[in-house]
Amino acid sequence: MRKLVRILGSLELTLILMLLVSLWFALGAILSVSSQYGNTVRSLNDQLVWKSLFELPHSWDKIWSASFNWVQIHREMLAGFPSPDRTVRAWLWGAFALALLLGINLLFGIRHWLGDLFRARLDFRRFLLLAMHVLFGVVLVGHLVSALWGVKAVGQVPTRARERIQLPDSMVLEVEEIEVLDAKDVAGREGERVWMTPDRYLRQPVRVKYALYKEGQPVHRGQVGTFLPDTYEDLRITLVPFSFRSQVSHDFVGKGVGPQIAVTRNPGVPIMMVFQPLWILCLLAYVLATPRFRAER
Amino acid sequence: MSYVTLFYLAFGLHGLLFLASLRLEKRSRFFGAVALPVPILVAGFCLAAFVRASGHLPSHFLFERFVQLGLWIGILLWLDALRGRADGVARYILFLILVLYAVAALFPKEITPPVYRYALPLAKVFFELEAWAFALLAYASAFYLRSLMEGRRNDDEARSALQRARRYLLLGFVLFLASQFFGSLWSLQGWGDYWMWGKMSAVGVVVWFYLMFVLHARYVPACGRIFEGAAGFGVFVLLIAYRMAWQP
């Protein structure tokens, strides 16, 4: 048992896990830019992560695109892979397993520092080390909370007037009106200055008016635009234009990717907003204090 | 003069300086401090031409980002040279700048149009923090490279290079995390959540965990100094791959 605990908390395991996470997400990046799997990876954004572990909201067939410049590489690399749905879910399970192992490794790895903390035998250097590792753990928990709880619902493409998005607690969002704006009308307004994306895809600025219904009764009316989200209680309503979602060749425009309205409530956000800056500050304090630690030794 | 001409001029001048550094760097303490401003100035003009054309600092395209990165690294080197702390490492740093410029030369010489995304303060903070983080990380990689190349000949120099590399790497890591944090705020505003599954988030995690891997490697005796040096230099390779993934 002791040996197992030692292995689980060892720095060697930490190194292996960190390298594995890097490689695993490198594979994820390859999948998400591939014309065969990219859309399916992006569909992970349309619902809570734990649901995606079992079923994805949409699964596209493998798409072979001649105009996508990486296609030859991907064709070679991914040709033998199973369907996008199975591949992406397997990848997600792998990421989840690695995060779990990393969490266990972290817990066992810091046990001596924790013991020293309670025995008041921790110097400032080791206290900072403990704090940054604990805060990293909290950030990891924040991601877990985001994956498990909250609300994530999207109005599927293409967003149309009168389209309805079913939300939990008998709530419904209905798109009332889509107003296409002339770029000149919105010139100079922050966030809407120019209607061209970095890959030179022309974007027509739009405003979407919507209503939220609870048990059939309207409870809120609002309007969203690009980078102009709206909120109702703890729900966040965001217009996510096509070009933001695609992140790949606009070849996808005719293949089922378009703008959407996302309704989200992420209980992990407050955790991240508080603990991630704390983690960064802790690391910064360690960097600044390093010469002092060296002198002390 | 167009920004493409200025880019090639800066590239050529950095090349000449690198060649000169092979002979002169160790003979004259002031070599870096005196000779560096010329290519830095030209790279600065190139960046100014980008800003003039697009209305903002570089954001999405590899070409413009690498010119900016080369400039920031050059400035860091110059500051170190002025303090007399660049002896022996300038050639490695100039070499890495040359690699960045060579990669940039292979990509389309495009600059980001004045897009609405960049108009948001959060996006600006994200891109600028990331640029400085990458400059520090690349700077650290040069020290790792030095420890690899000179480790067998001079043990003390290799140890001191590793020590400085770790410091720059840690500082770069802090800035990188800060940029990721502002990036997640930007994502929350535009996408509705602080985390979006896609290539940007995935490559961010790759860099994040690889940096943690390198930072932890020194504490595992089995890894040794050569392993740490090689892993540290891998950060530079990863930065190039990261930017390639961002290329629209």
Task: Describe this protein's structure.
The complex is a heterodimer of chains A (297) and B (248). The radius of gyration of chain A is 23 Å and the shape is globular. Chain A folds into 3 domains: 1-109, no CATH class; 123-150 and 266-297; 151-265, Tick-borne Encephalitis virus Glycoprotein, domain 1, CATH 2.60.98. With 297 residues, chain A is an alpha+beta fold. Chain A contains 10 helices and 8 strands. In chain A, 47% of the residues lie in helices and 18% in strands. Chain A has helices at residues 2-8, 11-33, 38-42, 49-52, 71-78, 84-109, 111-118, 124-148, 242-246, 268-296, and strands spanning 151-155, 164-167, 171-180, 206-214, 217-225, 230-232, 235-240, 260-265. Mean pLDDT of chain A is 79; it is low at 187-196 and 245-256. With 248 residues, chain B is an all-alpha fold. Chain B has 2 domains: 1-118; 120-248, Up-down Bundle (Four Helix Bundle (Hemerythrin (Met), subunit A)). Chain B is globular, with a radius of gyration of 18 Å. The mean pLDDT of chain B is 89. Chains A and B meet through α2, β7, β8 and α10 of A and α7 and α8 of B.
Termini separation of chain B comes to: 26 Å
The proportion of residues forming helix of chain A, as a percent range, comes to 40-55%
Distance between the termini of chain A: 35 Å
Average pLDDT of chain A, to the nearest integer? 79
The overall pLDDT of chain B, averaged over residues, is: 89
Q: Figure out the total of helices of chain B.
A: 9
Order of helices and strands of chain A: HHHHHHHHEEEEEEEHEH
For the record, the count of structural domains of chain A works out to 3
- How does the helix and strand content of chain A classify structurally? alpha+beta
The assigned CATH architecture of the largest domain in chain A is Sandwich
Radius of gyration of chain A: 23 Å
* Uncertain parts of chain B: none
Strand content of chain A: 15-25%
The figure for the number of domains of chain B is: 2
Sum up the overall morphology of chain B in one term.
Answer: globular
CATH topology of the largest domain in chain A: Tick-borne Encephalitis virus Glycoprotein, domain 1
Strand fraction of chain B equals under 5%
Biggest interface, chains and residues, is: A-B, 58 and 49 residues
